[in-house]
Amino acid sequence: MRHPLVMGNWKLNGNKKMVSDLIDGLRKELNAVQGCGVAIAPPVMYLDQAQQALADSQIVLGAQNVDVNLSGAFTGEVSAEMLKDIGARYIIIGHSERRTYHKESDEFIAKKFAVLKEAGLTPVLCIGETEAENEAGKTEEVCARQIDAVLESQGAAAFNGAVIAYEPIWAIGTGKSATPAQAQAVHKFIREHIAKKDAKVAEQVIIQYGGSVNDKNAAELFAQPDIDGALVGGASLKADAFAVIVKAAAAAKA
Fold first, then answer.
1. Domains in the chain: how many in total?
2. Which residues make Cβ contacts (< 8 Å) with residue 72, sequence separation at least 6?
3. Residue 198: inside a domain, yes or no?
4. Is residue 233 annotated as involved in ligand binding?
């Protein structure tokens, strides 16, 4: 049985006081929660502070990005080994904001995936379609292409122990969210697409939903059989709202 994961992507938000206060609130809210993995991805500047604040906690440290290089003259970048050294485990790659603002290609993201696997870290591979692609009926085509970049370069086994986050771009930060039925249909497609290569790998891979997940719609989303938690944006910046989402995931998969 798959173990759901709820991960908070803090994006470009935070300061030292916020990190301290938010983690303190999360520890209190989630102290007794079982049956759901929990991770947070603060900005890289605050990873060390966050890791120290998470000591003896069930909450796992994550990060928002990684470079394909392990060392060298790459100003401003952060390597997989550095993230591992500081205690991060779940690393977000392929987020639509990276694809859009930094022009990251499917092939480049697949290289990041490989680097993380080699380092023993867990890639959280974000995939999803734009509103125009959705309206044109290309959702499955886009998701398949983004997954195939990894499948074709590394094989289905690369998804063992990995995480996929389906995030329809039209739902990120917009207040819109795919209906539970819409999200489930895409999650089912993603799992079946990987199953064409390896059914066992497809069955165990965690597929999160992301895109305006909040404390009000989480329970309905998690009731779907192929939705294994969530990658949460704005709601992850509020301890009480994030805790409701985590508890909903734990309850749905109990």
1. 1
2. none
3. yes
4. yes
Does residue 174 form part of some domain?
Answer: yes
Write down the pTM of the prediction: 0.96
Copy the structure tokens of residue 215. Answer: 């404390």
Q: How far apart are CA 2 and CA 160, in angstroms?
A: 12
CATH number of the domain at 174, please.
3.20.20.70
Catalytic residue among 104, 129, 167, 187: 167
Judge whether 10 is annotated as a binding position: yes
Condensed to tens digits (0 to 9), the pLDDT of residues 8-39 reads 999 999 999 999 999 999 999 999 899 999 99
To the question of whether residue 57 is assigned a binding role by annotation, the answer is no
Indicate which residue of 95, 97, 104, 187 is catalytic. Answer: 95
Domain range enclosing 147: 122-226
- The Cα-based distances of 21 to 27, 41, 54, 127 in angstroms read 10, 15, 12, 31
9 marked as binding residue: yes
Please indicate whether residue 102 is annotated as part of the active site. no
> Is 220 considered catalytic here?
no
